[in-house]
Specification:
It is built from five helices and seven strands; from the N terminus they run E-H-E-H-E-E-E-H-E-E-H-H. With 167 residues, it is of the alpha+beta class.
């Protein structure tokens, strides 16, 4: 189903039916992810399997993505790979979330309705780094050991000479 990931579902009904939903979601379509993308591209794919456990509507979520972020060392695009699994209990309010067993993550969905896109977006946000950096500094365009490349501006490079000349 095209864009089925964006349609609100009754988590309880889907759990009772033991529904599996395969998804392929463009990352720019996820509002809280879109603003963090270095490039308006990429997708998250996987499966959301709804089941009922301990009286709760539970989503077993598996997803993979390569999120284009900006490396904060060299300010160039990089790919942040994500392969995540989560067991999410969908509950209606904060009181119910407090009673969710520790083996589940709790997500509050008023009236038990939530989209697969919201679940995926939340999991991606949990897996993104606070500061994106290339894993190997050699992948960056800057030298870290005191050197600089030809594009590095050094506005105070001549300041020492100027201070020596002043009376």
């Amino acid at each position: 189903m095209p864009n089925g990931w964006s349609r609100p579902l009754d988590a309880g009904q889907q759990a009772d039916r033991r529904t599996d939903i395969d998804f392929l979601i463009p990352l720019p379509a996820l509002p809280r992810i879109a603003g963090q993308l270095a490039l308006a591209e990429g997708s998250a794919q996987g499966t959301a399997s709804f089941v009922r456990e301990q009286g709760l509507a539970v989503v077993d979520l598996e997803l993979e993505a390569a999120v284009p972020l900006t490396c904060q060392r060299c300010m160039r695009p990089m790919r942040w790979p994500i392969a995540a699994r989560a067991r999410i209990a969908v509950v209606g309010d904060a009181d119910a979330a407090d009673r969710v067993p520790p083996e589940f993550e709790a997500v509050i969905a008023p009236a038990g309705r939530i989209t697969v896109g919201e679940l995926v977006e939340e999991e991606l946000l949990l897996d993104l780094p606070i500061v994106a950096l290339h894993a190997d500094p050699k992948e960056c365009a800057v030298q870290l050991a005191g050197g600089h490349d030809e594009n590095t501006q050094q506005p105070f490079a001549g300041l020492a000479e100027l201070l020596k000349r002043s009376p």
